[in-house]
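Re: the multi-chain job from yesterday

Posting the exact lines I submitted so nobody has to dig through the queue logs.
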Amino acid sequence: MYPEEFRYTREHEWVKVEGDVGVVGITFHAQQALGDIVYVELPKVGAQAVQGKTLGTVESVKAVSDIYAPVSGEIIEVNQTLVDKPELLNRDPHGEAWLAKIRLRAPEELGNLLTARQYRDLVAEES
Amino acid sequence: MRFLPKSETERRQMLDALGLASAEELFAQIPAELRLKRPLALQPGLSEYEVLEYFRQCGRRNAAGWPCFLGAGSYYHYRPALVDAVVSRGEFLTAYTPYQAEISQGLLTSIFEFQTMICQLTGMEVANASMYDGSTAMAEAALMARRISGREHVVVARSVHPEYREVLRTYAHNQAVRIREAPYEPQSGAVNLQEAAALLDDHTAALIIQSPNFFGVIEPLREAAEAAHRAGALLIHVFTEAVALGLLAPCQQADIVAGEIQSFAMPPSFGGPYAGVIATREKHVRQLPGRLVGQTTDSRGNRAFCLTLSTREQHIRREKATSNICTNQALVALMATVFMTVYGKQGLRELAEQNLAKAHYLAGKLPRRFAGPFFNEFVARCPGRSPEAVNQELLGKRIIGGLPLGRFYPELADSMLLCATEMSRREDMDVVAAAIRGSEGGRQ
Amino acid sequence: MIRKVRSHIAQDEPLVFELSSPGKRGYQLPALDVPPVDAAQALGAGNVRAVIEGFPEISEVEAARHFTRLSTWNYAIDLGMYPLGSCTMKYNPRANEAAAAVEGLAWAHPYQPEDLAQGCLEIMARLEEALAEITGMDAVSLQPAAGAHGELTGILLVRALLAARGNPRRKILIPDSAHGTNPATAAIAGYEVENIRSNARGMIDLEAFPNQVTEEVAALMLTNPNTLGVFEVNIARIAEILHCKGALLYMDGANMNALVGVARPGDAGVDVLHLNLHKTFSTPHGGGGPGSGPVAVKRELEPFLPVPRLKRVHEAWRLDYERPQSIGRVRAFYGNFGVLVRALAYIMACGPEGLRAVALDAVLNSNYVRKALEPHYDLPHGEPSMHECVFSDQRQARRGVRTMDIAKRLLDYGFHPYTVSFPLIVAGALMIEPTESESKRELDLFIEAMISIAREAEENPELVRTAPHTTRTSRVDEVTAARRPVLRWRPEQ
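And the result, structure tokens for all chains:
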């Protein structure tokens, strides 16, 4: 369920490192808690993400949730498909429904994040 | 008390079920020092007859039924009888906000129709289910433009309704929005576009123009939009007289249209309740405040309607909401929907044409202050005596004249704003014209 | 195939645009008694529009049927109870409608000469007085158009007073149980919001509270009784703590129905509050508005009230525009006058005894329902309830049935649901406010329905989860409505 190569935040985001770029998204647990997702507000390309600060928002019919950046750096790409197909986040949150790609400014920040096992434990606790 | 559907026996039964001697005990948790030890100092309750008689007497003191030539943001138009027949039905009058779509389809359908008709009238792509009134719609439109453009300040024409500009100031004050006013041209009565354009800079979120403006004059909306867009700002078109939309071309270059629809079957009612609207381009829909009704299906595949995009609203976004507005003016918006349906495509046009004819007839007899084209309102100079004196004479003839402008525009203290609608009669207009011209004619 | 569908009395009804055909008319204007004017000539050809594309063209008969049919698909107070918490869906007396329709009132122009508007001005003055007396405050403004509008006005008043004293301050404290308009309002008024946690009793934690009231805090926005239906017993102490630090106490008056004639916020130290005339004072909801949200204040806030104010000069009422410290206008003209008339008519009909009886019956009804449902639904807080009670769906959730499902199943029993999932501090909340307008019979029917649904949740959860089953439409797809919004009719559809 939770890929080993990802790192996770306590707020249910994930990041996958590909060279000096971090691909980020929200976890399976997050989309399940939110229910049917109707809209995603993505950050602007070129903006600066800061670890722990708001990156964007995700909306279900009755709720809005902030998405927090797992890593800091410049946003080099956002997933435009989500604009027309927000339901992808429910279907494939760890794959096709990535949110943004960030050029890592401080790779050592990854040390602040959880491993897959630690994240699984967190989810088990919260349920 | 006839509004309380319980007999003493029933109260007794209920108290027994709770194991209480009296309902007073249920208030025990309120500290004694906070509980009232005396009845409220109000007049004792009256019978229905007495209550209504009081209000009828109040009404009688108010010049009911006199011909009236006031406009200025509140207009006298005929209200088709079907309007009250529809809105007084308990299923509309006493219904709640349609959060439970399954048992509110009637209401939701009519709001969807309303949103559609507003789009058709304004030439915009999406409209909300109404705001409190035109003045707050304008203020909210300005805040919306700020969110869309990312810029902070606005430029507004001085020919926009003075009270609307006051409301804008109140709203803007707390959001650190700077407002600059663009003057009007003394000749035409329209906004001085050059000066307006000079006030636009790269911190301007929007240029706000009312058309027909407060003086009744048609503004050059297209040129204003071009000037705004050149500066990277949005153009907000404001209207106070909705009937004008039946005849005047919508401005396709406007980014947001905000206005008042009181003219569509809401009685003037001493200033409220009215209903405002905001309409805009589809791409701005998520910045639109107020309720929105959307089309969808139910689980059996039938067409149905529901409130949607609720995440913009206060009950979900809380401090990040687009606005704090909770109500829409559903019942009065329904009046407008019935009105627009009854008049329809041909009728709204004909109604507007009649308004045009009446006002131009009256204006033709008077020294007009401004030369610009006008719809059903215009400014007339009062030669020889003050507009207040003219109105005094008219009151003696049981006619309410126009609005003396000195209170809002000191430079126009010798003039009054007159409005003539399809309800204005020729003979009364003749009397008004004679009084303003100062001739001795009176009624012919 | 027959057109009549479902078990509903009204035909499937198209939209007005779908009923239209060219040339059909529902109106007739009188002949012009003045010469017609060529629009293109008078306005300039470029300013004249073409035909209003897509606008309806139907006859009066079709219009009458259309809207009448639509109305039969709506639930309404006239049909039955709305147990909606904090909405106070009470009976809307018809006499109020007759009062508002009086010609001299309905057709009064806001700019008509004051000498000819004395009837209107007196009505407003009387209502101001009555509301001040009911709330124990010193001055009232009737200008705000709705509760949220009144809230905004109230917070702007707070800001103005504090600014006049030298520092408007930065923060507003808001309990986590508050209605969403509270933080939205604070944000629009330019304040930061700081949340206050409720204690285990659902009230403000008096231990922690004083620490949160710093010199940066402008006010606390309190709802009393709070959204759990519980009276903030420490309100006077809370007011003291705030006042010591130069901060103010704002009260959201949405729940006044529990207090009229029994207790007055002004006596408890409240500095400013707003009222919802469409709640406590019986003006009709009309499907979502118009409402009215008057603001009541203590003396020191009076100079800042919206302009104009009513003033008695000799034997007449005048509108006073000389208000240099006013926050300005919050809307054009004077307020939702038509709604004000209805509220005053209600107050006059009730009188002091009637209003007090309203509060007593409202609280009695809510407690009666609470007692009957306690064996079947989880009660998160044991505090005494006032005019509303809050349950949670914890018990039913074990069978996969949530508060929204129970609400939808309630529709099958002929009731409008209670308030779902609010307040947020109770997971899976069911917020019930019967109001005083419900007879014992109606309450018993509601209780029976709720007990039956609790049993269904145990024995047949699927039935509840897929409800409603007998309404005109089944559960609507709100997800698609939000994902791909269709907000207007178009001919191609």
